[in-house]
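Section 5: illustrative case.
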């Protein structure tokens, strides 16, 4: 987790420095937007069957600072939880948060390119099923409680897109493709399992025996890639407001570093979206 934080910190410093510098020169236009993204897709870990998601509402906030052809865009998903009806691997719920922070440069014809950083935080809880065991490196650990997996993954994000203006109201189509070619992080697996057994004796006779519970945590480095596609129509409402609606596609896949080819996590889905943006 510390590695991911170190990778993300320099970008935050650049964003703050750029905002401070341009604020002292020409005015910076600031906008804030909130969108509801109805994610329909699947979530899968390891080789278990995928858990289906049906139009889960994900609220995304956007803060943009722009000046001339330069812009800084920060997009965030606050920690939200979604639950599964019948997960094949015993998963009950996942909590997810995301931050995308990018610098964009615009060119003629409405084209723009960008670069920045993506940060994922994810935590999944599993139901405690009698008889379930956790296997690792030839060792078997009986589960006596709920298993939990959590990870933080970060990596560089590259963007290319186009803004097209149309109609008398100067509405726009905003489209972009973003790609994270290599993200890095660590997945932690926390399991409650059996510990030492102690017995009491009464006058040399065996009394009662109790088995303690211990929690073990295992760390597995992982790498990931992500494709993020978005198309939305922006319609002006009043002097400062804009209505946005469109669709977004996300494909995220992570694999373990020490187990080449073995899936760690996959999130794939398409999300119709609607939102509102205001100029501050």
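Designed sequence:
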């Amino acid at each position: 987790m510390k590695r991911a934080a170190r990778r993300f910190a320099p970008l935050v410093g650049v964003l703050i420095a750029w905002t401070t510098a341009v604020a002292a020169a020409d005015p910076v236009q600031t906008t804030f937007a909130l969108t509801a993204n109805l994610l329909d897709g699947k979530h899968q870990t390891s080789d278990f069957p995928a858990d289906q998601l049906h139009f889960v509402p994900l609220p995304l906030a956007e803060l943009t600072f722009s000046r001339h052809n330069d812009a800084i865009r920060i997009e965030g998903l606050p920690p939200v939880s979604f639950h599964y009806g019948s997960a094949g691997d015993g998963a009950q719920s996942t909590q997810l948060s995301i931050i995308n922070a990018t610098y964009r440069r615009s060119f003629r014809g409405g084209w723009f390119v960008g670069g920045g950083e993506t940060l994922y935080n994810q935590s999944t809880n599993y139901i405690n099923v009698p008889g379930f065991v956790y296997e690792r490196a030839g060792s078997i650990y009986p589960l006596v409680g709920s298993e939990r997996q959590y990870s933080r993954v970060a990596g560089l994000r590259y963007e290319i897109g186009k803004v097209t203006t149309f109609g008398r109201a100067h509405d726009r189509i905003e489209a972009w493709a973003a790609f994270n070619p290599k993200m890095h992080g660590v997945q932690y697996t926390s399991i409650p399992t059996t510990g030492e057994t102690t017995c009491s004796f009464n006058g040399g006779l065996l009394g009662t025996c109790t088995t303690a519970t211990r929690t073990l945590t295992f760390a597995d480095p992982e790498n990931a890639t992500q494709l993020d596609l978005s198309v939305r129509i922006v319609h002006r409402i009043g002097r400062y407001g804009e209505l946005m609606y469109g669709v977004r596609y996300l494909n995220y896949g992570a694999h373990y570093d020490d187990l080449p080819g073995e899936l760690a996590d996959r999130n794939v889905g398409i999300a119709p979206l609607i939102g509102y943006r205001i100029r501050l």
